[in-house]
Design goal:
Elements (H helix, E strand, L loop, with lengths): L5 E7 L1 H4 L10 H8 L4 E7 L5 H11 L8 E7 L18 H12 L2 H4 L4 E5 L25 H18 L2 E3 L1 H8 L18 H6 L8 H18 L28
Parallel strand pairs: 1-2, 1-3, 3-4, 4-5
Helix pairs in contact: 3-4, 4-6
Length: 257
């Protein structure tokens, strides 16, 4: 039996999985749940360590059927693990060609398209090489796993796929590096070719995963995309078409009438 609330699914890797955790402060998932309270069910489907190849395999295992729930929004946020360097020991690397095809296959998967959700494709964010673990074979870190330049290629590829298939793209990579003061032609923020960037350090607590400040920026950016693409679904828009589900307590008696 279908429940009363349509769903807003957040599908991604550890950055999505950890977006429920409020131990450090502001977190994305609770913030979205708050602004859509009694309107949509915001559901976290983050899977730590996953790349797009693994994501494609698990997608049918959690995506609801139309009989179970209507998915109104779906955010897809992968690439941070795909962008691990080739031949890294974690085996998370996915080639650019395969990454792009995986995104196409995901966005075009029949289990998603039958729902006709409003899709948001989020680019992988930059990395901060200064905060990533240094190679240390004696402590289980045999090589560097990520670089700023390599990750940029995956952000570019994600943006290209979004434009190709016609879905809304939240270009988080560009938002973060703009916040870090990047200017075209300079070394990328987070690269060891540039000086250490204090702003990027405030966004990425370990060079990859988000601080509360980063989650707040993602939250604001997501609402900006929703407001631009679907203003009637923007919870901050007083003219939205998002009525509260089930009656207000003062009108509860109407249920029995």
């Amino acid at each position: 039996m279908k429940g009363p609330y349509d769903q807003f699914i957040l599908f991604g890797d550890s950055i999505t999985e950890q977006s429920c955790n409020q131990d450090w402060g502001f977190a994305l998932t609770p913030a979205l749940q708050d602004v859509y309270i009694r309107r949509l069910d915001v559901i976290n489907r983050g899977f730590s360590g996953y790349n797009t190849s693994q994501a494609l395999q698990v997608l049918p295992l959690f995506m609801p059927t139309l009989a179970q729930a209507k998915v109104r929004f779906m955010a897809v946020f992968f690439g941070a693990n795909d962008a691990c360097l080739p031949d890294s020991s974690t085996l998370q690397h996915v080639s650019l060609t395969r990454y792009k095809q995986n995104l196409r296959n995901m966005l075009g998967h029949k289990i998603i398209t039958i729902q006709q959700p409003r899709m948001i494709l989020i680019t992988p964010p930059p990395v901060d090489e200064y905060r990533l673990e240094e190679p240390d074979p004696y402590n289980g870190v045999p090589e560097r796993l990520r670089t700023a330049e390599h990750t940029k290629q995956y952000a570019d590829a994600c943006r290209e796929v979004g434009a190709e298939v016609g879905v809304a793209v939240l270009d988080l990579w560009s938002i973060f590096i703009a916040e870090a003061g990047y200017k075209e032609g300079e070394p990328l923020p987070g690269s060891k070719k540039a000086e250490r960037n204090s702003v990027l350090g405030e966004l990425l607590r370990d060079g990859l995963h988000f601080t509360p400040k980063a989650y707040r920026l993602l939250f604001k950016s997501m609402l900006d995309v929703i407001g631009k693409e679907w203003p009637d679904q923007d919870p901050t828009n007083p003219e939205n078409s998002l009525p509260s589900k089930l009656p207000d307590w003062k009108n509860f008696g109407s249920l029995s009438n």
